[in-house]
Amino acid sequence: MNFRTWITAAGLSMLAATSFAQDAAASAPGTHKPRIDARQARQEQRIDQGIASGELTQRETRRLEREQAVINRAEDKARADGTVTTAERKRLHKMQDHASRDIRRQKHDGQDRH
User: Which pTM does this prediction carry?
Assistant: First the structure.
């Protein structure tokens, strides 16, 4: 193997190792930020869609947005020490489950914005 081939192979190995390390870090315990954030974003989109369609009244919208703000603060608090524990993650998911039910209930309760 000549020098150029060896350098190329070494560079590709380092690139693969770096990629693997990033993937491992992303799936390590306490680093579920992307899933939590993605779910939060979907719920906020559902609220926005309810506003646009008129399915949510102003009062319902304020209440749902306040609920999302509480979840955001709880998430920030859980991450404050750099790690989201299993218990914190369960609590966040439970809060998001409750918020999701509230969004659905309010969007389908027959009250429309006038």
Answer: 0.68
